[in-house]
Specification:
The complex is a heterodimer of chains A (about 230) and B (about 325).
Chain A lengths: L7 H22 L3 H26 L3 H27 L12 H23 L9 H18 L3 H22 L5 H29 L6 H12 L1
Helix pairs in contact in A: 1-2, 1-5, 1-6, 2-3, 2-6, 3-7, 4-5, 5-6, 6-7
Chain B lengths: L1 H37 L9 H10 L11 H19 L9 H5 L2 H21 L3 H32 L4 H11 L5 H17 L18 H4 L5 H26 L10 H28 L8 H24 L2
The chains are: A mainly alpha (about 230), B mainly alpha (about 325).
Chain lengths: ~230, ~325
């Protein structure tokens, strides 16, 4: 079943999923925190749009609710909270120094190919048109992980974590007709609580080492040993 | 009869190539006019680039003492290679023999040949600016070419052909299909086109400031008809990229036969599409600022990433399932 045989709405789902993957790369490469938060908000909005279109094309009306939940939580509330945090930490104009940006991008592309290879047996079952989005969402999860590994800034790492959650949600929407509402509400609540906890942690980290560069956490023990 | 038909077709192909040479300065004039209007100026008339070319053609050619034969030959080679490349891109009709003869890889090769001689000519006289411009041009093109090829391969995979005419035909035959791969290929090709034609985030076409110029630095030593040919070639290159983007991604209106009426419709459609693209380019150049030279690799890295994602998107999302 190639893309030409699909109805227009399902083609739109594929295009939106590809754009989610692209925002993942934007997040990975964006050195400015505020711009990265905006990219994250766009990713949330795109995931909500995918959910809406899947709901419209599959007549799964309960997905409209989870689309609305995603839009409010991931595209508005969490970016707004992060924005406020960054403002209060006076990191508005902070730009991370990316180590080897081209290499990290190529690693991201390699992860996309890897997840495609991983999902290939599932796709060959030919169950529904959204199956091949599973590869894309797996890639979004892995790129979020890569972002947490490659960045030193705590806020950027949190953005990577949150975009992993976006990828999980995308795979849930695309492989099944969405999770039960109770599970979805639970996950949404978890993410919100995690966000608040991260906020507290940011202040704790900064109070103890005067920066949000997580690499310094190693150096602190070294200097303490040297002082003894 | 067949022989007669091919003769007619070759006539149309020649007319199309002439159209490129005639319309390219007008397109540049149109972009300058739009830009001037956006900056609250009245601007020069649209035919001003033509007047400049004619004036330069009549002027005496001055050549530096240190210049070799290469310096004199380069304008002709650059102009002919660029014009040949342009002739292979379907302008008003997709059924011409020039389009059937060459594919996209030949097109990229011809443009690379023109760029090679342009850079050599820049270094030939031995001035600092020429060498600087040539090295910058090579930096930009070495990074732009892989991105361009990725975008081209994405197109070729979805059309199952590297021939531009069959790509256009398959696009027309498919009708309205939302393809993630084409979206990414379009974005990649736009970024590459901006870098290759020396438009604003990468190079500023209207300045001679030594710190920033790329294309202007290479042709600084040229005068008279040599300069006219170099500038004409640059204008044709801009139009080539415009037509490539307009006709491959939005092929509506292009003629698929050799009837004069449908050819006229095809020409009208492509002129309208180019005018639209010109307005977009002028608006983008007004809004954006030129970036530092050392940011250009990041810009072209983005183009390469978009091309790669287009390729992967095609494999993952469009063939599978």
């Amino acid at each position: 079943m190639s893309i030409i045989d699909l109805p227009l709405l399902q083609q739109l789902v594929l295009v939106l999923a590809a754009l989610v993957l692209f925002t993942s790369f934007v997040l990975l490469e964006q050195s400015r925190l505020v711009a990265a938060i905006h990219a994250f908000a766009w990713q949330g909005a795109l995931v909500a749009a995918v959910t809406t279109v899947v709901a419209a094309s599959g007549q799964a009306s309960h997905l409209y609710f989870s689309a609305l939940l995603t839009l409010v939580l991931k595209a508005v509330l969490i970016p707004w909270m992060l924005h406020r945090l960054v403002h209060r930490l006076a990191l508005d104009r902070h730009a991370d120094t990316l180590r080897r940006p081209a290499l990290v991008t190529m690693a991201g592309v390699a992860l996309v190919i890897f997840s495609y290879w991983l999902v290939l047996p599932i796709v060959e079952q030919e169950l529904s048109f959204t199956r091949n989005i599973v590869a894309v969402s797996l890639a979004v999860v892995l790129i979020g992980l890569l972002m947490m590994v490659s960045r030193q800034q705590a806020v950027a790492q949190v953005l990577g974590f949150m975009s992993m959650e976006n990828g999980l949600f995308l795979s849930a929407v695309s492989s099944t007709a969405g999770m039960p509402l109770v599970v979805e509400l639970g996950v949404a609540f978890d993410v919100l609580v995690a966000m608040i906890l991260f906020g507290v942690f940011f202040f704790q980290i900064r109070e103890s080492i005067d920066t949000l560069d997580v690499d310094r956490l190693n150096r602190l023990t070294e200097s303490a040993e040297a002082g003894e | 009869m067949d022989h007669f038909l091919t003769l007619v077709a070759w006539g149309w192909a020649g007319a199309q190539a002439l159209c490129y040479a005639l319309l390219a300065p007008l397109l540049v004039g149109w972009i300058r006019k739009c830009k001037a209007r956006l900056q609250n100026r009245r601007g020069a008339p649209v035919i001003q680039p033509w007047r400049d070319l004619i004036k330069l053609m009549g002027k005496e050619v001055r050549v530096a003492h240190t210049a070799s034969i290469l310096f004199r030959a380069a304008p002709y080679i650059v102009f002919v290679a660029t014009w040949l490349a342009a002739a292979t891109v379907p302008l008003a009709a997709s059924t011409l023999p020039t389009a059937a003869m060459a594919d996209i890889i030949v097109l990229v090769g011809l443009l690379a040949l023109a760029r090679f001689f342009l850079a050599l000519a820049g270094m030939d006289v031995g001035t600092a600016f020429g060498g600087m411009g040539a090295s910058r041009e090579m930096l930009v093109s070495a990074l732009a070419e892989p991105a361009m090829l990725m975008a081209v391969f994405t197109l070729a995979m979805s059309a199952h052909s590297t021939n531009l005419a069959s790509v256009v035909d398959s696009q027309l035959a498919a009708g309205l299909v939302l393809r993630p791969s084409l979206l990414f290929a379009l974005a990649a090709l736009i970024l590459v086109a901006v870098a290759e034609t020396g438009r604003i985030p990468v190079d500023n076409p209207s300045t001679h400031l030594e710190l920033t110029m790329i294309h202007e630095a290479m042709i600084l030593e040229y005068s008279g008809r040599h300069l006219a040919l170099m500038e004409w070639a640059a204008q044709i290159k801009l139009m080539l990229y415009g037509v490539l983007i307009a006709n491959v991604f939005f092929p509506w209106g292009i003629s698929q036969s050799l009837e004069p009426a449908s050819m006229a419709i095809g020409l009208g459609a492509v002129v309208l599409k180019l005018a639209g693209l010109g307005i977009l380019l002028a608006a983008a150049e007004t809004v954006l600022a030129k970036m530092r030279l050392f940011r250009v690799p990041a810009f072209l890295n983005l183009a390469l990433l978009l091309g790669l994602l287009g390729l992967l998107g095609y494999v993952i999302l469009e063939v599978g399932a």
